[in-house]
Amino acid sequence: MLIADKIALQELNYLYAQYIDFHQVDEWVALFSEDAVLDERPLGFGVHEGRVAIRAYAEMLAASVLHAAHLVPNILVAGVGSDEATGSVLALVEAVTRDQCRMRYQISYEDSYVRQDGEWLFRKRVVRSTVPPEIMRAGSIC
What we know:
CATH topology: Nuclear Transport Factor 2, Chain: A
Shape: globular
Radius of gyration: 15 Å
Order of helices and strands: HHEEHEEEEH
Number of domains: 1
Helix content: 25-40%
Strand order of the largest sheet: 2-1-6-5-4-3
Strand content: over 45%
CATH architecture: Roll
Structural class: alpha+beta
C-alpha cells in the first residue's frame, strides 16, 4: 500500500467525522460503497446495510442530535490488496441530543475499505465501545 493510499484513508475517516458532526447527510452517505454495512449493534444502534439504510440512519441522527464531535486521532490502516484495505480507528465522541441528553462514547471502529472509481470508501464499519457499559452510562447525562 502506498503512502498516498494511507493518507487518503485517513482523510476518509476525518471526513466521516466532520460530515456526520455537521449533519452533512449526502456527503456522509457518499463515503460508503453501495453495498456497505454500518454495524452499530455493539452500542445498541442496530445494523444498517446499503446506502439507503445508512442514509435513513444519518437522517435520524441529524434530526435527533443537536451537536456532536467525533475526535479521531488514532487511525491505523493495513494493506490487503491494491483496491482493498482494513483498518481500525479509536475515537472519542461527544453528543448533545435535541432533548438535552449529553452522551460521551469512547469507541473503536473496525473497518473494511474498498477503492471504487479511484476513491476509497467504507465497505464495512463495526463500532464497538472501548469502555464497559456501566462506565459509559456514568458519562452520560439524560
